[in-house]
């Protein structure tokens, strides 16, 4: 089976979203690192008892999973990013390209921190929901989660198979 690159507009859209996501993420992290002291909690109040700006570093993944295992996290992120980028390059569905590009952009933003920052990923958005101190996160995490939600919506409500059975082809990947 020979794969063809479909729809240059999709590729440009996907790469634009990825680049914008990385720039936004790294710029916000630069602002935090330049203007705050590490482990400053609730330094700026955005909405009292709800959203604060803090500065921490996380050497793990979400909720500090795999804490201190940067090698594993870099490897897993790299593999996922390769699959996501392949889908972006070989799909002609913009509704699939946009969320995948957001996932890739957020993943690359945090990957940059894991590779070049010794303390881990810079996190700064501190949210309290009904008294629960939600784990602090960053712009890359937000972009990645929004992309995942959009992908889930696409798969649940818009994804259609064109052929059923073993060796099937799907409309969004033909």
The best one-word shape is: globular
Which spans have pLDDT < 50 for at least 5 consecutive residues? 163-168
Percent strand equals: 15-25%
Computed Rg: 18 Å
- The spatial strand order of the largest sheet comes to 1-2-3-4
Q: Give the terminus-to-terminus CA distance.
A: 11 Å
Roughly what is the average pLDDT, rounded to an integer? 83
User: Which bin fits the share of residues in helices?
Assistant: 40-55%
- Per DSSP, the total helix count is 4
| Category by helix and strand content | alpha+beta
Describe the sheet with the most strands.
4 strands, antiparallel
- Overall tally of domains: 1
Q: In sequence order, what are the helices and strands, one letter per element? A: HEEHHEEH
Number-wise, the strands total 4
Can you walk me through this structure?
- By secondary structure, this protein is of the alpha+beta class.
- The protein has one domain.
- The protein has four helices and four strands.
- The protein has a four-stranded antiparallel beta sheet.
- Strand 3 and strand 4 form a beta hairpin.
- Helix 1 packs parallel to helix 3, helix 2 runs antiparallel to helix 3 and helix 3 packs antiparallel against helix 4.
- The N and C termini lie close together (11 Å).
- About 3% of the residues have low confidence.
Concise structural overview:
With 174 residues, the chain is of the alpha+beta class.
């Amino acid at each position: 089976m020979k794969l063809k690159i479909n729809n240059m507009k999709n590729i440009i859209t996907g790469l634009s979203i990825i680049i914008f996501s990385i720039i936004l993420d790294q710029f916000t992290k630069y602002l935090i690192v330049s203007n705050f002291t590490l482990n400053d909690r609730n330094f700026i109040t955005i909405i009292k008892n709800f959203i604060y700006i803090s500065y921490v570093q996380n050497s793990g993944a979400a909720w500090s999973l795999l804490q201190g295992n940067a090698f594993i996290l870099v490897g897993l992120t790299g593999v996922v990013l390769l699959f996501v980028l392949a889908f972006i390059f070989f799909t002609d569905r913009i509704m699939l390209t946009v969320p995948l590009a957001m996932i890739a952009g957020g993943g690359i933003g945090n990957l940059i921190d894991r590779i070049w920052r010794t303390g881990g990923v810079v996190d700064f958005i501190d949210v309290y929901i009904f008294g629960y101190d939600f784990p602090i996160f960053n712009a890359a995490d937000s972009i990645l989660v929004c992309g995942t939600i959009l992908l889930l919506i696409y798969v649940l409500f818009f994804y259609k198979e064109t052929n059923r059975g073993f060796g099937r082809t799907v409309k969004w990947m033909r």
